[in-house]
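From the thread on structure requests for the teaching lab: each student submitted one protein with a one-line request. Submission from student K.M.:

"Model Diacylglycerol kinase family protein from Ectobacillus funiculus, tokens only."
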Amino acid sequence: MKKGKLLKSFQYAFLGIAFCLRSERNMQIHAAATVVVLLMGTYVRVTKMEWLVLLLTIGGVWSLEMVNTALEKTVDLITAERHPFAKIAKDAAAGAVLVFSCIAVAIGLVIFIPYLW
Ligand SMILES: Nc1ncnc2c1ncn2[C@@H]1O[C@H](COP(=O)(O)OP(=O)(O)OP(=O)(O)O)[C@@H](O)[C@H]1O
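Reply posted by the TA:
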């Protein structure tokens, strides 16, 4: 890939992240939660291994939320009609985000509760 093309692909990826942050309420919630977790992690001085788990979890939630947005937009582009498959696609993607978010909260509790106790 040429240097210009590589730079452009990064630019498009950042535009995608910026769009999700601007327009998706859930993404803004994830961003706020991320700031809180990073501040708390710094404050209580979590271990290197705990940082790795937290960062991986944060990355997973953000990535999954953006894939969810991509899927929602694709479904909306394919059909403006109500369709059971469109509902399944959107609901399953939203379910995937919910599953990972619940796990993320559980991981946060397991890591932070012993420090705050
Ligand atoms: N084309 C569709 N066919 C059937 N069900 C749909 C369709 N689009 C959305 N739904 C259902 O509505 C839920 C919410 O969808 P979505 O988040 O896209 O919001 P919306 O219905 O387009 O309204 P809004 O844009 O105000 O949030 C989906 O999870 C799904 O259950």
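TA comment: Residues 72, 79, 82-83, 86-87, 90-91, 94 surround adenosine-5'-triphosphate (CB under 6 Å). The mean pLDDT is 97.
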